[in-house]
Amino acid sequence: MQVIALSPNWNEKDQAPCIPYEYETAVMHSGGVPFVLPMTDSKAVARRALEAADALLLSGGVDIVPSLYGEETLPCCGIQYPQRDKLEEMLFHLALERRMPILAICRGMQMVNVCQGGTLYQDIAEQSGSTLSHPRHDAPRDCVHDVSIVPGTLLRQVLGVDTLPVNSRHHQAVWKLGKGLKVSAWAPDGIPEAMEFEDDYPMLCTQWHPENIEDKYPLHRRIFEWLMRACSQA
Ligand code: MN
Q1: Catalytic residue numbers, as ranges
Q2: Residue 19: per-residue pLDDT
C-alpha cells in the first residue's frame, strides 16, 4: 500500500495540527495509507517525515501570505498562517528533489504556483471581474460549475473527459502562472481550475476538492487512483 503524506492545517483555538477527514478517507478509498505531517519549521524533520511516504498531498486551507508572491495584503485577502506557508514551501521542494508524486488541492495548487514564482488573485470576485461564484462553501459536496479540461494534459489522460462538473469552495485562484507550469483545466470565467508541470513530472493540482466528492462522483476518484499508480511508477 502506498503511503501518502498530507500537509496539515492549523487549528488556532486548540493549537493543533488537523486535516478534514475526507482527505484521509479519499486516500484510503483508493488503497493508500494517509498520514498527517508534523507542523514543523525543521527541514530535517520535514525531510525524514517525507522519507516515510511515497507521495505528497498538499491540502486545502487558509490563504497564503501575499508577500510570498510580492504583493501587499489587500482587505479582500482572508486569514493566513505563515508557519504553514513555510512548511509547505519546504515540503514542495523536498518532494521535487526526490521526484515524489504530488497531488495539490485548492490552497495546495495555489502554494505550488507561488513556490514557482506565480501570483494569486487575493479575491476572485474583487480582482478578476468574474461573476461566477467560486466560494460555494454552502455546497461542499455538490458540483456547482464545470471545468474544461485541456487536451493533451496529464489530467485529460487521467480523467478521459473534456468537461467535468466540480465543487468549488475557494475565493482565491492562480493568476500569473509560475515557472514550468501549465493550466490543465479552466472554469467558464477563465479562472485556472487545474495545473500541472509542463514536463512529465508526476503532479496534479486541482482548485476544486475531489476528496469531498470522490465517493459520489467516481470520476473524481480517478485523481486519487492516479496518485497511487504514480507512486508505483516513481
Ligand atoms: Mn471554482
Answers
A1: 106, 209, 211
A2: 95
